[in-house]
């Protein structure tokens, strides 16, 4: 029989999904804001590599707009933004990101749009990307990216503001 243990990622997804599905519960009893302790089970504002803390697992955010395959960032070209370290392939990409990080950072906090549309925080694979009208979207798998039509992205964008309020700064 398979492993039935609940992983930390699974627990986070369940907790976030429950809160996103029930705004009254997310706001706490009586409509109060949730306490910091109750928010601690929710992921950070941007999905990051759990081992290194690097955004996009070290890939260059600007390179997604330039080439079909993202370029790996280099430690010599790092910037801090949104509580994460972002790496770049060179100084020009680093400068472009510094001028307008929102233009290059992934949408939906870097979480998989299929998961966001379902009310769950799903860590993406930074090599499975889609450049949409609104910007960069990262997916967990190629199969999930195939579901990334305009309707799904619109549903994820519509749900994201409620989920974003749940994430840690």
Structural features, described:
It is a single chain. With 169 residues, this protein is α+β, with helices and mostly antiparallel strands. 38% of the residues lie in helices and 14% in strands. The chain is built from nine helices and four strands. The protein has helices at residues 8-21, 23-27, 36-39, 63-66, 91-99, 101-104, 113-117, 142-146, 150-164, and strands at 74-81, 84-88, 125-131, 136-139. The strands form two sheets. It has a two-stranded antiparallel sheet. It has a two-stranded antiparallel ribbon with strand order 3-4. Strand 1 and strand 2 (84-88) form a beta hairpin. The longest helix has 15 residues, at 150-164. It is globular and about 40 Å long. The chain starts with 7 loop residues before the first helix and ends in a 5-residue tail after the last helix. The model is unreliable at 1-42 (pLDDT under 50).
């Amino acid at each position: 029989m398979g492993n039935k243990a609940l992983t930390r990622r699974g627990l986070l997804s369940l907790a976030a999904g429950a809160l996103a599905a029930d705004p009254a519960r997310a706001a706490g009893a009586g409509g109060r804001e949730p306490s910091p302790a109750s928010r601690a089970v929710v992921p950070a504002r941007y999905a990051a590599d759990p081992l290194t803390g690097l955004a996009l697992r070290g890939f260059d955010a600007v390179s997604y707009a330039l080439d079909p395959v993202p370029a790996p960032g280099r430690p010599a070209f790092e910037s801090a933004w949104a509580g994460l370290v972002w790496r770049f392939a060179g100084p020009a990409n680093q400068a472009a990101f510094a001028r307008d990080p929102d233009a290059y950072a992934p949408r939906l906090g870097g979480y998989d749009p299929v998961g966001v549309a379902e009310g769950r925080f799903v860590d993406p694979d930074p090599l499975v990307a889609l450049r949409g009208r609104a910007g960069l979207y990262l997916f967990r798998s190629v199969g999930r990216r195939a579901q990334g039509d305009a309707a799904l992205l619109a549903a994820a964008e519509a749900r994201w503001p409620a989920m974003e309020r749940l994430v840690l700064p």
